[in-house]
Amino acid sequence: MPEGAGAAGWRRLALDPPRAFGTPPVSGNLRATAADFAVEERLGYEPDGGRAHRLLWVEKQAANTLDVARELAAAAGCAPADVGFAGMKDRQAVARQWFSVPAERAQPPPAGFRGDAFRVLASHPHSRKLRRGALAGNAFAIRVRAVAGDRVALASRLERIAAGGFPNYFGPQRFGAGGANLAQVEAWLERGWLPRGREPRAFVLSTARAIAFHAVLARRVDEGSWNRLLPGEVVNLAGSASVFVAAAPDEALAERCRAGDVRPTGPLCGEGGLAPEGEAAAVEHAALEAAAPLPAQLAAFGMRGERRALVTRPAALRQREDGDALVLEFELPRGAYATSLLRELVESGAPPAGGD
Amino acid sequence: MMRIGSGYDVHRFGAGDHVMLGGLRIAHTHGVVAHSDGDVILHALMDAMLGAAGAGDIGQHFPPGDARFSGADSRDLLREVVRMVAARGFTLENCDLTLVAEVPRIASHRDAICESIAAALAVDRTRVNLKATTAEGLGALGRSEGIAAQAIVLLREVDSA
């Protein structure tokens, strides 16, 4: 491994990558209670009335998404894998999200059903199982307590981020509690084999990909190019998985980038997939040295190469007073982490483990 | 999982000096009668994508009577369709498009149209194919009273990374 890589370098890349806007203008306490972190899923489409499944609108508190899915499966009399959901939501939060339960060979629990730490608020007929990632985004309301600092500067930073976005880092939960998944990645490299079981393997691989992505995004933040297109950039159409290579971005494309319609991307390392060219490739390859040998290992393991936007943009970003607390409200597209926005706004003692 | 969809659109020729095809302005002796810009290729493509995703059709999402879409640039509508499809967990694998018209002839514009469509879809140029044919003088299209397009698309389901 190159100098600076390995446990210490990767931990810093994973949990404390460079901020785009410098020190946050305020400090405060995040997530004093679960109710301080409210998240509501936005599918981006309506239940279609089909008969094969029911879409259940569920509110959960202090429970993780997989546990709720298992409990819904038990109540319906189907396998946990038959229950679908579009995204994992925070455990330490009040979260509202959709689950799909097969309706023709199981009995989905009705509206009003209560589980250990959740309740079903509504039920609608739908034709398909919900798939991971099949959502538009999430709306958040985050209460910050004991706020101190420059509130005028905070307002200014909110305006700046609303207009131009923020670095699309993965949140700390991607790396496990306290970065625990990082040790599993190192163990994978040392032993040469992955842990047994689909979920443990997926955790290790997704953590490894996130480290490599952070290496590229951190470099682009340091160089000030995280929010603009370089020659040879792999460009993403915001709100979609569509990507294309812009060999020589013209002013029209640059303007679309400033407007948030298209975005530069970094690698989710693996084999194949669209790769940058020219200057964008040079920057990316140099940055990935900090993550070596993860890119090669991920490709050798057969992961499919994909891209993730370097920048993401909140909608409806605003602050309001609530007694002694400050409440930050915003919407994020799928795959974006609330914690990656909050770390640009609020200095807190410990990073909250939140976001989608 | 892969999903297939088909789309078809036709517009009558009317007053004007150009038609919009795949987002490009093509000079012609007539325009088309339409609420938006009347881009038959993109309209067929959007319907195919929405159909493949089980998301209805463009009439539902961009109603012809809605003033917001009067004269709309169909590339903007297509980008919205890409996002709708993405919200359902799909991305475009490829599309195969067929223009049916006696006039105008588009052979010299074919590559530019494909590049324009690929740019609007934000996909590599190789994922877009465009063919053109005539109606062999048969029917209204054969009498050069209008222009039509057919689209077949394949969508691929994507898991979040």
Q: Summarize the main sheet of chain A.
A: 10 strands, mixed
Strand/helix succession of chain A: HEEEHEEEEHEHHEEHEHHEEEEHE
Q: Would you identify the CATH architecture of chain B?
A: 2-Layer Sandwich
CATH topology of the domain at 6-20 and 168-312 in chain A: Pseudouridine synthase
Instruction: Give the mean pLDDT of chain A.
Output: 92
Q: Into which percentage range does the β-strand content of chain A fall?
A: 25-35%
What is the number of helical segments of chain B per DSSP (H or I, 4+ residues)?
5
Helix and strand succession of chain B? EEEEHHHEHEHE
The residue-averaged pLDDT of chain B reads 93
Q: How many structural domains are formed by the residues of chain B?
A: 1
Helix content bin of chain A: 25-40%
Q: What's the CATH superfamily of chain B, by name?
A: 2-C-methyl-D-erythritol 2,4-cyclodiphosphate synthase
Category by helix and strand content of chain A? alpha+beta
- Cα radius of gyration of chain A in angstroms: 21 Å
Oligomeric state of the chains in view = heterodimer
Report the radius of gyration of chain B as a whole number of Å.
15 Å
Percent helix of chain B: 25-40%
Short description:
The complex is a heterodimer of chains A (356) and B (161). With 356 residues, chain A is an alpha+beta fold.
What tags apply to this protein structure?
heterodimer; A: 356 residues; alpha+beta; Pseudouridine synthase; ten-stranded mixed beta sheet; four-stranded antiparallel beta sheet; 16 strands; 27% strand; globular; B: 161 residues; 60s Ribosomal Protein L30, Chain: A; five-stranded mixed beta sheet; two-stranded antiparallel sheet
Please give a structural write-up:
The complex is a heterodimer of chains A (356) and B (161). Chain A has 356 residues and is of the alpha+beta class. Among the domains of chain A are: 6-20 and 168-312, Pseudouridine synthase (2-Layer Sandwich); 45-126, 2-Layer Sandwich (Pseudouridine synthase), CATH 3.30.2350.20. Chain A contains nine helices and 16 strands. In chain A, strands 1, 2, 3, 4, 5, 6, 7, 14, 15 and 16 form a ten-stranded mixed β-sheet that branches. In chain A, a hairpin with an 8-residue loop joins strand 4 and strand 5 (94-102). In chain A, helix 4 packs across helix 5 (198-223) and helix 5 (198-223) packs across helix 7 (278-288). Chain A is globular, with a radius of gyration of 21 Å. Chain A starts with 5 loop residues before the first helix and ends in a 9-residue tail after the last strand. The model of chain A is unreliable at 351-356 (pLDDT under 50). Chain B is of the alpha+beta class. Chain B has a single domain (2-157), classed as 60s Ribosomal Protein L30, Chain: A (2-Layer Sandwich). Helices cover 29% and strands 32% of the residues of chain B. A five-stranded mixed β-sheet of chain B has the order 4-1-7-5-6. Chain B has a two-stranded antiparallel sheet with strand order 2-3. In chain B, strand 5, helix 4 and strand 6 (128-133) form a beta-alpha-beta unit. In chain B, helix 1 (40-52) packs parallel to helix 3 (74-87). The longest helix of chain B is centred in the middle third of the chain and has 14 residues, at 74-87. Chain B is globular and about 45 Å long. The two termini of chain B are 16 Å apart. Chains A and B meet through strand 9 and strand 10 of A and helix 3 and helix 4 of B.
